[in-house]
From TrEMBL:
Protein name according to UniProt: GNAT family N-acetyltransferase
Domain of life: Bacteria
InterPro entries membership: Acyl_CoA_acyltransferase
Stored SUPFAM superfamilies: Acyl-CoA N-acyltransferases (Nat) (SSF55729)
Length: 154
């Protein structure tokens, strides 16, 4: 089951946040989560939350934001997909994709863009500890109207 972030989900998502973004405190997460849980016609960012079942706690989350790209047009971008289970990651992502497509259509987007990271490491040299990737970032953009991957010109 996948749905938009509900205010009641905010504290339940903190273990997922700590996995990927350990520099975010519970207090900061509550503030950020409340902002991302807002609803309404003008909301352009938020979080999709995946649950294994109705009464089960969250098992994954995907951030989203609506933006414009010169190549793809209006695009729904997911910068972070965080899963509780590494072994079930692909199944969870497969459940998130249709929800992202539905949301993208609701927001009037032409494409969906997702980023995935591997070899995550904490940047200890930064004054603000943050998640970084050692250049192992995969980006995939899919047009909604043709459901084909966009191949950027070389």
């Amino acid at each position: 089951m996948v749905r938009r972030l509900d205010p009641a989900d905010v504290p339940l998502l903190y273990p997922l946040i700590r996995i990927a973004l350990p520099h975010i405190s519970m207090r900061d997460w509550i503030r950020i989560g409340r902002r991302l849980a807002r609803s309404g016609p003008r909301v352009r960012e938020g979080i999709l939350v995946a649950h294994y079942g109705i009464a089960r706690p969250p098992c994954a989350m995907a951030t989203f934001r609506r933006g414009f790209d010169l190549y793809s047009g209006d695009t729904l971008t997911s910068d972070y997909i965080i899963t509780l289970s590494y072994t079930q990651r692909q199944k969870i992502v497969d459940a998130l994709i249709p929800a992202m497509e539905t949301l993208a259509r609701e927001l009037g987007c032409d494409a969906i863009r997702m980023f995935s990271y591997s070899n995550r490491a904490i940047n200890q040299d930064s004054p603000v500890r943050k998640l970084c990737s050692t250049s192992h970032i995969t980006e995939r953009t899919v047009r909604l109207d043709r459901n084909k991957e966009i191949v950027h010109p070389s």
